[in-house]
Amino acid sequence: MNAPFPPVLPTYNRTPLSFVKGEGVWLTEASGARYLDLTSGIAVNALGHAHPALVQVLHDQAQALWHVSNLYKIPAQEQLAQALVDNTFADTVFFTNSGTEAAELAIKMVRKYWYERGEDRPTILTFEGAFHGRSTGAIAAAGSEKMTKGFGPLMPGFKVLPWGDHDALKAALDDSVAAVMIEPVQGEGGIRPLPDQCLKGLRDACDSTGALLVLDEVQCGMGRTGRLFAHEWAGIAPDIMMVAKGIGGGFPLGAVLATANAASGMTAGTHGSTYGGNPLACAIGAKVVEIVTAPGFLEDVQRKSAGFRQSLEGLVAAHPDVFEAVRGQGLILGLKCRAPNADVVKAAQAQHLLTVPAADNVVRLLPPLTITPEELSDAVARLDAAAQSLV
Ligand code: PLP
Fold first, then answer.
1. Which of 19, 97, 318, 340 is spaced 20 to 30 Å from 123 by Cα?
2. Which of 105, 219, 229 is the pocket-test mutation for ligand 1 (most atoms within 8 Å of CB)?
3. What interhelical angle do 297-318 and 279-292 show, nearest 10?
C-alpha cells in the first residue's frame, strides 16, 4: 500500500525540532531544551521572540479591533504609512501580507507606469541568485531552474542577468527595459551584498534610460544592515521598494513603498487585498517601526555587529577547513563554507544554535536585532564548537 499523503503538503524538508516557546533570542522545545536562534524565522523576528512591547500592542489591538476591510479608512494603516514615508524616500505605501505579494504589486506598478505613459517597455531586468518569492510572477522574475521547473509556462517579461556583470547590464539596459529589480543584499542567494558603488551605478544607469529601480528589501531591510534600509548605505533611493519579514516582527505584514511618480498609475480599483494593512497587522508594524527608528537603536545594531563580524573573521581563520569567508553587513551575515553548509547547520544545531543554509554553500546568520553582545559571543562559541566537531 502507498504511504498516506501527509496532511501538511510536503514542500519542506523539515528539521525534526518543534518549539513551544520563544523569548528574546531563545527558542524552547517541549522537553525544555533551549536553542539560541540566529535565524529569526528567516529575518522575521527582528525584535526577537515575544518582545514585551509587541505583545502589549497585539493584546490591546486584539481586544479593540482585528480586521476591517480596506473599504473603510484604517487609522493604524495611515499611521504606519506615514511613519514609513517620514523615514524613507517613499511618498506612498501599500500594505500586503508577505514579501511575495509585495513583489507582485511592484511588478504590476512598473507595468502600469509604462502603460500610462503609452510606452512599450516589456522587460524587467533581474539577477541570477535572486529570490522574490514563490508566486508565478516571482519565480519568473528569479528565473532559476530550481524554482521554475515544472511550473511553466512562465510569466513573460523578465530577463535574468548574471550577478555582478556590468557589461551584461549595460548591454541589456535599453529602451525596452521598464525596470531593474534587485536585492541590495541577496539573501537566499547566499548573502551577496551589492557594493555601494554598483548600486550607485545602477541608479545612474536606470536614470539614463528612465527605467525604474525596484529594490527588494524584504530580507535585508528593516534595520538588518544597521540602517533602516540597506540602500541608504549607498546614498541612493529607489523608485519602488518591497518590504516584509522584519516589519511585522513575526506578524504577517509586507509593504510596497514608492515615489508618487512610480505609483502614479495605481488608481482606485487597480489593486487590492482583503487582509493587507488590517488594524492588527498595522498596529504591530507601527510599533516595530517606532522601536527600530528610535534614537540609538540602529547605531547599536552597527556597533554590536562590528564586534560579531570581527569574531566571525577569527572563527574563519581558526577553521580554514570548515569556513572560507564572512559575507554581508550588519546582522545579515553569511559564512561561506568549505565543508558542506548543511553539515555546518547540523553541527551548530547539535550545539543548540540555529542557523539557516543559503545558496552558494553559505550558512546564514540572522539574529534578532535586539541580541546582546554577550549572546553574540555565546553564538560564536557554539559555532566554534560546531566547527571543531566537523574535523
Ligand atoms: N524577497 C526576498 C528578498 C525574500 O528573501 C523573500 C523571502 O524569503 C521574499 C521576497 C518572499 O517573501 P515571503 O516569503 O514573505 O512571501
1. 97
2. 219
3. 70
Q: List pLDDT tens digits, range 23-46.
A: 999 999 999 999 999 999 999 999
The atom number, within ligand 1, closest to the CA of 186 reads 3
Q: What CATH number should be reported for the domain whose range is 19-50+296-390?
A: 3.90.1150.10
Domain ranges of the chain: 19-50+296-390, 65-292
> Are residues 284 and 353 in contact, defined by beta-carbon separation less than 8 angstroms?
no
For 64-78, letters b (16+ CB in 10 Å) and e give: eeeeeebeeebebbe
Rounded to an integer, what is the distance from CA 250 to the centroid of its chain?
Answer: 13
Cβ of residue 132 lying under 6 Å from some atom of ligand 1: yes
Same topology for domains 19-50+296-390 and 65-292, yes or no?
no
Which residue's alpha carbon is at the smallest distance from atom 10 of ligand 1?
Answer: 132
**Residues 150-175 pLDDT 10s:** 999 999 999 999 999 999 999 999 99
Nearest atom in ligand 1 to 99's CA: 12
Element (H, E) at 202: helix 196-209
Q: pTM of the prediction?
A: 0.98
If you search the block for the grid coordinates 498609475, which residue do you land on? 265
84-90, Cβ contacts within 8 angstroms, sequence gap of 24 or more: 84/243, 84/255, 84/257, 84/289, 85/257, 87/228, 87/289, 87/293, 88/228, 88/229, 88/241, 88/257, 89/237, 89/238, 89/241, 89/257, 89/259, 90/241, 90/257, 90/258, 90/259
Determine the atom of ligand 1 nearest the C-alpha atom of 245: 15
Ligand 1 atom index nearest CA of 216: 3
Distance of CA 70 to the CA centre of its chain: 25
Does the domain spanning 65-292 belong to CATH 3.40.640.10?
yes
CA distance 268 to 264: 11
Tell me the C-alpha distance between 358 and 186, whole Å.
Answer: 10
Cell (9 digits) for 153: 509556462
